[in-house]
Amino acid sequence: MTDLEMTKLCAEALGWKHLGAVGLTFRPENEKGLWCMSGANDWWQSPHGDYVCNPCTAAVPDPLHDDAQVMTLIKTFKLQISAHPTENGTIWLAAFQFSAISNYHGFHTENANLNYAITECVAKFQKAKG
Question: Per-residue pLDDT for 12 more than 90?
């Protein structure tokens, strides 16, 4: 799974909806609807119903590069995080909490980059959800 795919899946897991190319790359006179001054045409709808053009803004979640957003994933999905020292550094394990009421059994990842391990774990779950 690519970084872009994981980022998209995590945004969707947090309630964002990817709309794709539904706007205009310029605004003709008297034209209504979504348009983007930068020429991009990759639209998202936030969980609050706002329309956001990406990658023009930093509003769409990017947990691979934003520690606050990765913390949101940890808290939202109640992830378990553990560090395992190795000869070459630390390996981080991200996993869903296992409980009798959880449907998240079996989703876990390991990586030397903490944000990557967390993002990949949530993306794997979101992808399996369909």
Answer: yes
Which pair of structure tokens corresponds to residue 13? 């897991």
Do the beta carbons of residue 7 and residue 17 sit within 8 Å?
A: no
Nearest of 120, 130, 129, 103 to residue 10 by alpha carbon: 120
Record the pTM: 0.80
Average pLDDT of the chain, as a whole number: 83
68 by Cβ neighbours in 10 Å (0-12 / 13-18 / 19+) ranks as exposed
Residues 71 and 113 in one domain: yes
Q: Which of 5-14, 37-46, 88-97 has the lowest mean pLDDT?
A: 37-46
Q: What is the pLDDT of residue 130?
A: 74
E strand residue ranges, 1-130? 17-20, 43-45, 51-53, 79-86, 89-96, 108-111
Do 123 and 71 belong to one domain?
yes
Q: In terms of domains, do 115 and 71 share one?
A: yes
- Pair 74, 53 in one domain: no
Q: Which domain holds residue 40?
A: 17-59
